[in-house]
Model the fold of this input.
Amino acid sequence: MRTDTKNLVSVTDFSRHPSRYINSAANGTSHVILKDNRPTAAVIDMESAERLAHLDELEDDLKLMAASLVRLVTDDGTRHSLDDVAAEFGIDLDELRKD
Done:
């Protein structure tokens, strides 16, 4: 999603004419709302919002896949029992099980 610099809107102007910018976004033109001359929010159409949400999900999936691949490549087959790991970190598993 690209926003043209012509589509920068002050928060004051947006608050005076919200329907103008909402209708414009519904027709595919996104607007960036400026507060104190800094980009603060955006008004976009629902299709773009859904696309961004989908991209966020894909990003999460890609991070998990990358972590899995790293584990596959670096796995030397060594495994550790829970008791060994707890002992290494000074954790009393019996104490944890009481709760």
The radius of gyration is 25 Å. Strands lie at 8-10, 31-35, 38-43. The longest strand covers residues 38-43.
